[in-house]
Design brief:
alpha/beta, three-stranded antiparallel beta sheet, 7 helices, 10 strands
């Protein structure tokens, strides 16, 4: 595990963007696992800047998103598909056919999850997976539990996650209570992992993930077992290390 502590959010975003750009330059048809939320926004802006400078080409890249809310369609402003379109895909030359986000309106969720897993396997697995971390230590939407869920699955979001995500909605009543998420095994099968965290609110989760016991009660702690993970933090998020 490699831990980088940088001065601020801007530096975190630049470092992560450069790592992704380097991956794509070395392997133009890279498979990228992408995350949503506040944390990756700066990274996506930096990637758009690099693309506009013609320093990176996404034409052959394939993407798989970590998760999607269950019960809202892709056109919903709060869907993660819509987030990716507005914050990255509309501004780079990624082929829309190469974009993969779980179907949040699927009638047969188990079939959709199996299909998602199969697609990842068909392209040879994820080369570089980007992660954030929840205040409760979740990665993707893998919530604290008594066991690790292996593959892409339907998740019941816990109260802390619903509360944290309510800032994106008009009311907490509008926040979906379920999501489709890559499982822990799916994430851990990625060849490289980057985890980003900033702010004092993530400090305890980071400390427990890096220094604590490996446990499904802190899902991010499983990353201690991965052989190529880089954790990029600002000074506040790293303050308890």
């Amino acid at each position: 595990m490699r831990i980088l502590v940088l001065d601020n959010y801007e530096e975190i975003s630049k470092k992560a963007a450069l790592m992704i750009a380097s991956q794509v330059m070395l392997k133009p048809n890279s498979v990228l696992g992408l995350a949503t939320g506040d944390t990756p926004l700066g990274m996506y802006k930096e990637l758009i800047t690099l693309y506009n400078k013609k320093e990176v080409n996404f034409n052959e890249v394939r993407t798989f998103n970590l998760d999607e809310y269950y019960g809202i369609d892709r056109e919903n402003p709060q869907s993660y598909y819509n987030y990716m379109i507005n914050n990255l895909f509309n501004s780079i030359n990624v082929n829309r056919k190469n974009i993969n986000v779980p179907d949040g309106m699927a009638m047969d969720v188990e079939a959709v999850c199996r299909c998602y897993e199969n697609k990842i396997k068909e392209v040879g697995g994820i080369d570089m997976q980007v992660l954030g971390i929840g205040g409760n230590g979740h990665i993707g939407f893998n919530e604290p539990d008594v066991n690790f869920e292996a593959q892409t699955h339907l998740v019941n979001l816990n109260a802390q996650t619903i509360e944290a995500n309510s800032r994106f909605f008009k009311s907490i009543k509008d926040v979906p209570i379920k999501a489709i998420s890559m499982g822990i095994k799916t994430i851990m099968n990625s060849k490289k992992i980057i985890l980003l965290a900033n702010g004092i609110g993530k400090a305890e989760a980071i400390e427990r993930a890096i220094k604590g016991k490996i446990s499904p009660e802190i899902p991010a702690s499983i990353l201690q077992l991965h052989n190529d993970v880089t954790i990029i933090l600002d000074k506040q998020a790293a303050s308890l290390l």
